[in-house]
Amino acid sequence: MKKNMLWIAGLTLLLFAWTGTSLAADKIGFINMQTIIQNSNAGKKAAEDFKKLFARKQESIKAMENEVKKLKDELDKQGAVMTASARGDKEAAYQRKMRDYQILVDDTNKELQKRDQEYSQQLIPEILKVVRAIAEKEKYTLILDISTMPLPYFDKNNDISKKVIDDFNRAPVARK
After folding, report:
1. Integer Cα distance of 112 and 58 in angstroms
2. Which domains does the chain carry?
3. pTM to 2 decimal places
4. The pLDDT value given to residue 162
5. Residue 75, C-beta contacts closer than 8 angstroms, at least 6 positions apart
6. CB atoms < 10 A from the CB of 136, how many?
């Protein structure tokens, strides 16, 4: 029993000695990847390209939506005076157009989401190279991304996002 207590006491002392020396030398930095992507030149260009694509897709959705509304209005206005078969044909055409509209909206949303991910996936590896270079140069032990994990507190003086943006903007890959 005494031998076990000595082991525990020894391990506890060793743990305190190890954590005391290692924590004093650690340097922890923080980045906000979303801010870096949004404020870097390459990120702004990607956002501009995305907005153009979104506007084009929105136009086609709006055109299809107008067609669906037109069919619905015709059906509502003329439905009472139509024959049963003509009304059935018009309702079937409306249902097909509505289904096509819903498919178009769904496909467009999926494509936009995919494109957004592609833009991010192109930028993130290059941004991480810049982060690694800064970390090695300035002797950081750890750099955390505050946009992916909630942190109750971090020292804003250790946020290197602005420095990463500046260095990334100067990188040749960011200028493409």
Report:
1. 11
2. 2-175 (3.30.910.20)
3. 0.66
4. 95
5. 87, 90, 91, 94
6. 9
